């Protein structure tokens, strides 16, 4: 509701209250208020001597107590953001009940149906009748219990929140009872509570999530994206419970099966079997803290930045301080690569506060410095026992020099070119100069774009990262990674449009197909994006539930780097914080950006003259050679006049 006050005749105030739902624009709102004011001014009762305004601006209290249903819906918005939160809460309840088998079934990524079944201890009829009421829980009894929370759930908010925004059904049987019970609640109204024959355990079904909250439902992603979030969340939870079997179905199709087993096997199932042999076991104890788990050796870092999983008393938590401890333990962290870790910290519940976040994603330690030191020491000890120290060669490098057009390499390093860049096709290649439009140096009106021509005289690589190229009006400094990223992006967009539209893609075929093993969430993503990946040139064929045969590559990808580039591409696409494109072109752009970023030549890689010339040619053949797909600058131009000014050369001295 919106309230508007407008002064009418004789400065009397009329309060007009109306609903904005069908009034999208402020102009329409003002017109409605003006019409109401005119109607009230001309009303016959308005002319009576004893006239008083029927509605006073101060007659309605400003502060009001919300209804219980409104309070529940607000709480539901904090606890349940999307289907993945529902599944997380229900699976954690099953784990608290001692379940060893948990099955999750979805329809449309959980938007239409979520069903979680377990073989836990179950509930009695009396407990079932109370379980969906706000702030009812079996985990704590008094405020003092919050200091020693060892269960996953304890607030008594989750089931009440679900019952307020869905059709909520519970079927359960306690292990001590012979007959079970069934409860049905629709939007916080109990519809049914009857006896029900079933086996021990609990099955909770959520239908039409956010059925009475269309705004929240509208902001959910597609069914595939929501299903991917649930799959990722379930695999994370399963890491801390290797003795529990997890299954995930979308309708009748099984998306995930994690059988019970050892922690090492579960780590391989979740992190990837291809990493299993390179995981270093961690087992450290001291000062009341026990740290277990696995971390990867430095040479097997992943391109995915979200492959570090931390658990505190088996509760999955966000990294923060724990991630900084991992970084300190490794000391050297290659750019663009990230360690793989599954680490479990056991500590007294009295030393941890888990009641600091609505969804319990974060925890607070009583002695954070001690936990940081313990984790860093545990990881350093594990890495030291498995990784030999590298040999250091401290011989001074020879001084670099170039004959002919030589210059002494002092202060910076570059790759000398024994052969000048060929004038063709660089020579006399017209390029529309837009650099000054992107990076204006003053506020004067900018002239029309000028034609820029390369001279073909000199092309050098500086610090193995930047290409220095002379042009007729000065010189250009080009970021080699950004330039290659722009080239690959535009080529990928062309390939995607042609490939998914029935065209053919060109890929270099591998003589011996390579087996690529992925985590369950990665495999699901590849299945969903198989057409786009094939259009880029990755010839992939399913090989089992979570593996693919790589039979062909894009022409720009070296075979020895194929696996790393493919996994990096998958990591960039497997980003739960990004929404899915609404149309094909937006999806193509996201795939193309991820591929270009993963496959581009990195900074620090030496290039010969032929490769540099190819990058420059390709860059200026693109539609926009001046920025990367994400908007970062690709090149910087320095004019000849600016150089002369810096060296103090005047016009008369040139002659």
Describe it for me?
Helix content is 32%, strand content 24%. By secondary structure, the chain is of the alpha+beta class. It folds into 4 domains: 2-47; 69-258, Heat Shock Protein 90; 271-386, Ribosomal Protein S5, domain 2 (2-Layer Sandwich), CATH 3.30.230.10; 489-596, MutL, C-terminal domain, regulatory subdomain (Ribosomal Protein S8, Chain: A, domain 1, 2-Layer Sandwich), CATH 3.30.1370. Strand 1 (2-7) and strand 2 form a beta hairpin. Helix 7 runs antiparallel to helix 14. The longest helix is centred in the C-terminal third of the chain and has 20 residues, at 480-499. The chain is elongated and about 100 Å long. The model is unreliable at 1-27, 54-58, 387-457, 501-505 and 576-583 (pLDDT under 50).
Number of strands: 26
Q: What's the structural domain tally?
A: 4
Going by helix content, strand content and strand pairing, the class is alpha+beta
The CATH superfamily title of the largest domain: Histidine kinase-like ATPase, C-terminal domain
Helix count equals 20
What is shown here, in short?
The chain is an alpha+beta fold and 655 residues long. Helices cover 32% and strands 24% of the residues.
List keywords for this structure.
alpha+beta; disordered N terminus; single chain; eight-stranded mixed β-sheet; Ribosomal Protein S5, domain 2; 4 domains; 26 strands; 655 residues
Task: Write the topology of this structure.
Blueprint: E1 2-7, E2 13-18, H1 26-41, H2 68-79, H3 83-96, E3 101-107, E4 113-118, H4 125-131, H5 158-164, E5 167-173, E6 180-186, E7 189-196, E8 201-207, H6 214-218, H7 223-239, E9 245-250, E10 253-258, H8 263-271, E11 279-286, E12 289-296, E13 308-312, E14 315-317, H9 321-330, E15 341-346, E16 352-353, E17 364-365, H10 368-386, E18 414-415, H11 423-426, E19 430-432, H12 435-438, E20 451-462, E21 466-471, E22 474-479, H13 480-499, E23 507-517, H14 520-528, H15 530-536, E24 539-542, E25 547-554, H16 562-573, H17 584-599, H18 609-619, E26 635-639, H19 640-646, H20 651-654
Parallel strand pairs: 3-9, 13-15
Antiparallel strand pairs: 1-2, 3-4, 4-8, 5-6, 5-8, 6-7, 9-10, 11-12, 12-15, 13-14, 16-17, 18-20, 19-20, 20-21, 21-22, 22-26, 23-25, 24-25
């Amino acid at each position: 509701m919106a309230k508007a006050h407008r002064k009418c005749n004789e400065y009397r105030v009329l309060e007009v209250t109306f609903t904005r739902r069908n009034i999208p624009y402020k102009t329409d709102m003002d017109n409605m208020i003006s019409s109401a004011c005119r109607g009230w001014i001309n009303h016959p009762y308005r002319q009576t001597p004893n006239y008083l305004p029927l509605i006073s601006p101060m007659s309605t209290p400003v502060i009001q107590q919300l209804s219980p249903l409104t309070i529940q819906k607000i709480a539901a918005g904090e606890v349940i953001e999307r289907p993945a939160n529902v599944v997380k809460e229900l699976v954690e309840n099953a784990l608290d009940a001692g379940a060893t088998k948990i099955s999750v079934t979805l329809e449309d990524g959980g938007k239409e149906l979520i069903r979680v079944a377990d073989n836990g201890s179950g509930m009695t009829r009396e407990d079932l009748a109370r379980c969906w009421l706000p702030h009812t829980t079996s985990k704590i009894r008094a405020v003092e219990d919050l200091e020693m929370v060892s269960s996953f759930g304890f607030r008594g908010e989750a089931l009440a929140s679900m019952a307020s925004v869905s059709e909520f059904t519970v079927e359960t049987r306690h292990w001590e009872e012979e007959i079970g019970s069934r409860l049905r609640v629709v939007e916080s109204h109990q519809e049914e509570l009857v006896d029900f024959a079933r086996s021990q355990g609990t099955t909770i079904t959520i239908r039409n999530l956010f059925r009475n909250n269309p705004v929240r439902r509208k902001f959910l992603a597609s069914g595939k994206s929501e299903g991917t979030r649930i799959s990722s969340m379930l695999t994370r939870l399963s890491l801390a419970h290797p003795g529990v079997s997890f299954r995930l179905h979308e309708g009748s199709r099984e998306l995930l099966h994690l059988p019970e087993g050892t922690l090492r096997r579960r780590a391989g199932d979740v992190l990837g079997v291809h990493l299993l042999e390179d995981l270093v076991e961690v087992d450290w104890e001291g000062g009341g803290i026990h740290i277990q788990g696995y971390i990867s050796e430095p040479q097997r870092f992943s391109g995915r930045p979200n492959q570090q999983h931390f658990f505190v008393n088996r509760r999955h938590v966000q990294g923060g301080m724990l991630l900084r401890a991992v970084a300190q333990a490794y000391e050297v962290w290659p750019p663009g690569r990230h360690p793989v870790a599954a680490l479990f910290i056991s500590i007294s519940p009295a030393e941890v506060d888990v009641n600091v976040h609505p969804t319990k994603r974060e925890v607070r330690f009583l002695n954070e410095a001690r936990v940081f030191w313990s984790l860093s020491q545990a990881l350093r000890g594990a890495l030291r026992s498995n990784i030999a120290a590298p040999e250091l060669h401290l011989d001074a490098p020879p001084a670099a020099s170039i004959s002919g057009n030589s210059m002494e390499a002092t202060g910076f390093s570059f790759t000398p070119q024994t052969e000048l860049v060929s004038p063709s096709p660089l020579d006399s290649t017209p390029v529309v100069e837009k650099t000054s439009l992107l990076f204006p140096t003053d506020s004067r009106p900018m002239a029309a774009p000028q034609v820029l021509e390369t001279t073909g005289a000199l092309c050098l690589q500086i610090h193995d990262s930047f290409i220095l190229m002379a042009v007729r009006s000065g010189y250009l400094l080009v970021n080699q990674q950004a330039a290659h990223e722009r080239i690959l992006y535009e080529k990928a967009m062309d390939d995607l449009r042609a490939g998914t539209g029935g065209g053919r893609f060109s890929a270099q075929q591998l003589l011996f197909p390579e087996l690529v093993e992925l985590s369950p969430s990665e495999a699901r993503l590849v299945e969903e994006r198989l057409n786009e990946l094939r259009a880029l040139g990755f010839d992939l064929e399913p090989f089992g539930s979570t593996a693919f045969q790589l039979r062909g590559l894009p022409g720009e990808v070296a075979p020895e780097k194929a696996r790393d580039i493919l996994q990096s591409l998958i990591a960039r696409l497997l980003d739960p914080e990004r929404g899915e494109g609404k149309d094909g072109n937006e999806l193509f752009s996201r795939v193309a950006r991820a591929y270009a970023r993963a496959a581009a030549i990195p900074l620090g890689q030496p290039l010969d003259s032929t490769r540099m010339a190819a990058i420059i040619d390709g860059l200026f053949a693109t539609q926009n050679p001046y920025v990367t797909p994400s908007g970062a600058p690709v090149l910087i131009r320095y004019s000849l006049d600016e150089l002369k000014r810096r060296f103090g050369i005047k016009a008369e001295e040139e002659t």
